[in-house]
Design a protein that fits this description.
The complex is a heterodimer of chains A (375) and B (592). By secondary structure, chain A is α+β, with helices and mostly antiparallel strands. Chain A contains 8 helices and 21 strands. Chain A folds into 2 domains: 2-230, 3-Layer(aba) Sandwich (Rossmann fold); 244-373, OB fold (Dihydrolipoamide Acetyltransferase, E2P) (Beta Barrel), CATH 2.40.50. Chain A is 21% helix and 37% strand. Chain B is built from 25 helices and no strands. Helices cover 74% and strands 0% of the residues of chain B. Classes of the chains: A alpha+beta (375), B mainly alpha (592).
């Protein structure tokens, strides 16, 4: 549906060219919600704007439904107004001098009859429960209403593709959560191919069919939310999403193929873990597991010797409401775990912990943040 | 498959884009805008410099083929020229010494102290802007002419002064400085008040918390923080005074005091002998060089001002200083200023316009009050033509300026990231006329159109074109800052909604810029109506406008008619400005 290949882009900065995108490639399937996730300045919005046609890439190719809208090789550039794309901007960009109706009717072809335009606008406004606001001017709308108007305007002309640039970041926390589900339901019912840009990982995990994690102008890794969170291929991904325990370890055996089980020796005991894509035989290794994958228990007996288990002293507990963040020490290594809010261990208490082998991964120890150096 | 294109391939591909993009409406408009701005600004300046190095012996500069520096040596060796340079210096220094301290003091009083009737005074300070300089000069002649000036006559009677002249004489350098200085106050006040408002009040409150009094705070905190802004303003007003023509033109004519701007005029409108275009263009080029240098300093000062950026967006005003015993003198100062700048000049003009010949108010002259002056000028076909021409000129100039300013500002703001430097070029060239004195623009336009194939010399259009050039600087600057407030995503949303560039400009950008466009429209219209020096250089009997009409009536001693026409011009200006405000107000209230 959307195919982005080897996209390159740089901007003129104060000290010469600044590389914004280096070799970004991905595909988005029909009806899929694909999220570009990453910290600010990672190039996710630039990628989105290249798809929209608002930026001119230096090199690469972009196709929408097999039609090249940009190709560096033969000089194709379809201007944004002829790409048949709907877009919701971060600021919503509701034209303040027009009513809600005028805003939404704007993308409809001038050739369409007045009654047809009226009908189509009314239909989409009803769909987004904006019917009562048709004659309001934009400045008199709340944030949530503005966001829905922007959506209605993006969808009214039935585009092939919907682009969303941080559409929830201007809403307050409560509304953001509610709109997250509305947005997903709407996208599914329209079945529209969507590219979504956000820096909010929670939002990305909740909404997306697939997520592409971006860092410093490169796409690090693409996968389903669960894969990316639980079995990331790269340490950068593991580090960026959620919180993580990284423990230096020595490989004892195993690990011929990515995904294979390996046996590791670490300061907190021996662990069975899965090999990541990143780790290659011969590399120094690092054990990774998420705090919420740690099971805490009181009984210390039987912990000795068995892999993926150990005991630790609780150092600090932070109550978070729906859980408690537990920091404990095991042989001079700090570990982080999540405890159920009704079963919080006391500070100074010795606890037994265990992590399922399926939740442990092996990364290379010297993974530098510079993703461009990766093989 | 995944092979990145080589550098050579990239070049080929970029070239093919630039060809494709050249054909779009947007690129055509950009090309046209670049062409027009270059044509309006750079061609006349080039012609001026060209004329200044042409020999003028026996010939007009555009007919001569001899290249020479003779015009410059003539300027520099002529003993009269030394006095002109000195006069210009003294006139500039004197006017600034009168105007700027007054403006700073009043801005401080109105922004930082608890002076009574603040809103009234703040509004009244701006009223002198509706009175053209030409008419304040005429008004002050009637008030301070050593022989018949109203104030002199009254003072002589009150003081029992013997003799029939004095005590004041407006036909002196100090008289010129006084009238010019008063005129600088409103716009300088606006600039300083804006700096006061932009300043973070907590900086001053911190000083109060440190135990300093109001005077200490003002002298040790407020003014030093504002120093860069004040310095920039000083430079800006040096250019304004060097450029001013009306007041030195009228007062200096009788006083036989010439400054650079009037010297250029009299060189081309000599009472004896042929016009000396070579001398005028050499003088023009020299004024231009000085103004460019000053403008360069000004730009550097304002560019670095960000280091002193004090704008916080905190919407509160600092605690107002209680003036105590000084309240009455401070209020009196403001009242006296308003009286001197607006009330007295307007009253004396109105009085003169109602008299068949100039007379001091008395029982006799009161009996002679009549509207005859107003009726008489209407019987003159030239006056009707001048009024009509003025209207056409104001409308055409402001419409052309605003259209050009919108396009210039769009390309300046929205293309500023483009690597080709065109947006920087547009910004620089369109701002250039700000430091080209009007009289020099008028002169340069003569050089362009006497020879140019476009036959507009001697028509109203050449004046409109000259004014469009002059006002392009202010308009494009104003539109640029207005456009910067319009979020780029509003336009991009229109593109994504299938609107091509021209439609986006028409349906989204221009409606959003409407308030700024309306403001600039009326600003240009009023300035075009009151403008004298460009019109004076370029008009002929067919294309006479109100300001040149008043000028020639005054030169011919037709005082009452000049005053009557002046009153009409002031009222028209006030009406236009008021109309603009009402229009904006109605727009705003219909929106909400």
């Amino acid at each position: 549906m959307i195919s982005v290949r080897d996209l390159e882009k740089s901007f003129a900065g104060a000290r010469g060219e600044v590389r914004a995108l280096s070799g970004v490639s991905f595909e988005v399937g029909k009806g899929e919600l694909f999220t570009l996730l990453g910290p600010s300045g990672c190039g996710k919005t630039t990628t989105l704007r290249c798809i929209a046609g608002l930026e001119l890439p230096l090199a690469g190719e972009i196709r929408i439904e097999d039609r090249p809208v940009f190709s560096a090789v033969d000089g194709t550039f379809v201007p944004p107004e002829r790409r048949n794309i709907g877009m919701v901007f971060q600021s919503y960009a509701i034209w303040p001098h027009m009513t809600v109706f005028q805003n939404v009717a704007y993308p409809l072809a001038k050739e369409a009859s007045r009654s047809e335009i009226g009908e189509r606008v009314a239909r989409i406004l009803d769909r987004l429960s904006l019917g009562a606001l048709a004659d309001r001017l934009a400045p008199n709308l709340s944030g949530g209403q503005q966001q829905r108007v922007a959506l209605a305007r993006a969808l009214v002309a039935q585009p092939q593709v919907l682009l969303l640039d941080e559409p929830l970041s201007n809403l307050d926390a409560k509304l953001r959560e509610q709109m997250r589900f509305e947005l997903k339901a709407l996208q599914e019912s329209f079945g529209i191919t969507t590219v979504y840009v956000t820096h909010d990982q929670e939002e990305a995990l909740a909404l997306s069919d697939r997520i592409g994690l971006m860092q410093e102008g490169s796409l690090v890794e693409v996968g389903s939310p669960a894969d990316l969170y639980l079995h990331p291929a790269h340490k950068i991904t593991a580090d960026f999403l959620g919180t993580a325990n990284f423990i230096p370890a020595h490989v004892q055996r195993g690990g011929n193929q990515p995904g294979d089980e390996m046996l590791l020796e670490s300061p907190i005991g021996s662990f069975v873990a899965r090999r990541s894509v990143e780790w290659q035989p011969g590399m120094a290794a690092q054990l990774f597991f998420r705090p919420e994958c740690v099971d805490l228990g009181e009984e210390t007996a039987g912990a000795d010797g068995a892999p993926n288990r150990g005991s630790a002293i609780v150092e600090r507990v932070t109550f978070l409401g729906n859980a408690a963040d537990v920091i404990m020490r095991c042989n001079e290594v700090r570990l982080r775990a999540r405890a159920h809010p009704t079963r919080i261990p006391a500070v100074g208490q010795r606890v037994c912990f265990s992590v399922a082998p399926g939740s442990c991964m092996v990364f290379r120890a010297d993974s530098s943040v510079d993703v461009r150096k990766r093989a | 498959m995944n092979i990145a294109p080589s550098a050579a391939a990239k070049n080929v591909q970029l070239r093919s884009w630039s060809i494709a993009r050249k054909l779009s409406v947007r690129s055509l408009t950009l090309g046209l805008t670049l062409l027009i701005v270059t044509y309006l600004v750079l061609i006349p300046l080039f012609m001026l410099l060209y004329a200044s190095i042409k020999s003028t012996e026996d010939k007009l500069p555009f007919e001569s083929t001899v290249i020479t520096l003779g015009n410059y040596t003539a300027v520099l060796t002529n003993p009269t020229m030394a006095s002109i340079f000195l006069n210009t210096f003294l006139f500039t220094a004197g006017s600034l010494a009168v105007g700027l301290p007054l403006a700073i003091l009043m801005a401080w009083l109105l922004e930082r102290t608890a002076i009574p009737a603040r809103r009234w005074i703040a509004t009244l300070i701006l009223v002198p802007m509706t009175i053209p300089s030409l008419l304040s000069a005429i008004a002050w002649i009637q008030l301070l002419d050593p022989r018949i000036g109203l104030i002199n006559v009254v003072l002589r009677a009150v003081l029992g002064w013997s003799g029939d002249t004095g005590p004041f004489d407006i036909y002196t350098l100090s008289g010129m400085c006084f009238v010019q200085g008063l005129r600088l106050v409103p716009s300088a006040y606006l600039m300083i008040a804006a700096s006061f408002r932009a300043m973070d009040p907590s900086l001053e409150e911190q000083s109060a918390m440190a135990g300093r009094g109001a005077a200490q705070t003002t002298l040790r905190i407020t003014l030093p923080i504002m120093r860069p802004a004040l310095l920039a303003m000083l430079i800006y007003y040096i250019i304004v005074v060097i450029e001013s023509f009306d007041i030195p033109g009228l007062l200096g004519f009788t006083a036989r005091i010439r400054v650079l701007s009037t010297a250029i005029y009299w060189a081309t409108h000599s009472e004896v002998g042929l016009p000396d275009y070579g001398l005028a263009s050499a003088l023009g080029a020299m004024v231009l060089a000085v103004a460019l240098l000053l403008m360069w300093i000004y730009q550097r000062l304002t560019a670095h001002q960000e280091r002193f950026a004090t704008i916080t967006g905190k919407g509160y005003r600092p605690r107002q200083i209680d003036l105590g015993a000084w309240t009455a003198p401070a209020t009196a100062l403001c009242v006296v200023y308003v009286a001197l700048a607006v009330v007295l000049p307007f009253l004396v003009l109105a009085w003169t316009s109602l008299q068949p010949f100039y007379a001091v108010p008395s029982a006799d002259s009161l009996a002679r009050v009549s509207l005859e002056g107003y009726f008489r000028i209407w019987q003159e076909s030239t006056v009707v033509r001048a009024l009509w021409n003025t209207m056409v000129l104001a409308l055409v100039t402001s419409a052309a300026t605003i259209l050009l300013a919108v396009l210039v500002s769009w390309f300046v703001v929205r293309r500023r990231k483009a690597a080709d430097g065109l947006s920087h070029y547009l910004a620089t060239v369109s701002f250039l006329p700000q430091c080209v004195p009007s009289i020099v623009i008028g002169l340069a336009f003569i050089f362009v159109y006497v020879r140019f194939p476009i036959p507009i010399y001697g028509t109203l259009w050449i004046i409109a074109l000259a004014m469009t050039t002059r006002y392009l600087a202010y308009s494009s600057r104003t539109m640029t800052s207005a456009l910067m407030q319009v979020h780029g995503e509003l336009e991009e949303a229109s593109q994504m909604a299938r609107a091509p560039w021209a439609r986006t400009l028409r349906r989204i950008t221009m409606p959003l810029l409407a308030p700024a466009m309306i403001n600039v429209f009326f600003w240009v219209a009023v300035h075009a109506m009151q403008e004298l020096s460009m019109a004076l250089m370029l008009y002929n009997p067919e294309t006479v406008v109100v300001s040149t009409m008043i000028w020639s009536m005054w030169q011919n001693g037709r005082t009452a008619e000049a005053a009557a026409l002046g009153v009409i011009l002031i009222l028209l200006s006030a009406l236009l400005l008021l109309g603009g405000q009402v229009f904006l107000y109605l727009r705003r209230s219909s929106d909400s």
